[in-house]
Amino acid sequence: MDYTPTREAADKVAAAILRSGRSKASVAQAAGIPHTTFTRKINGDTEFTFGELLRIAEVLEIAPSNLTPSAFMAVA
């Protein structure tokens, strides 16, 4: 499988959840994303929206930029 921004965001979300000690299901619920939809997004099958990434970041109490693909980062 090619590494894409969709896959990178999914991996970042999964890693942030793991670091938080919370379950994927609890984060999905708190972020207002249906569990089946969240699973598809974590698996990289569909993309997270920016709104979803923002809500997940709020739930995990981290900066939203921690969840966005590197292609969206500013280059100095």
Largest sheet composition: none
Q: What's the helical proportion of residues?
A: 55-70%
Count the DSSP helices. Answer: 4
Tertiary shape = globular
Order of helices and strands: HHHH
Would you tell me the structural class of the helices and strands? mainly alpha
End-to-end Cα distance, whole Å, is 30 Å
Mean pLDDT: 93
Radius of gyration of CA atoms, rounded to a whole number: 12 Å
Low-confidence stretches: none
Number of strands: 0
Strand content: under 5%
Brief summary of the model shown:
With 76 residues, this protein is mainly α. The chain is built from four helices and no strands.
Question: Overview of this structure, please?
Answer:
- Helix 2 (about 25-30) packs across helix 4.
- The radius of gyration is 12 Å and the shape is globular.
- It is about 55% helix and about 0% strand.
- The protein has helices at about 5-20, 25-30, 35-40, 50-60.
- The longest helix has 16 residues, at about 5-20.
What are the defining features of this structure?
single chain, about 80 residues, mainly alpha, 4 helices, about 55% helix, globular
Q: Mind sketching the topology for me?
A:
Layout lengths: L4 H16 L3 H8 L3 H8 L7 H11 L16
Helix pairs in contact: 2-4
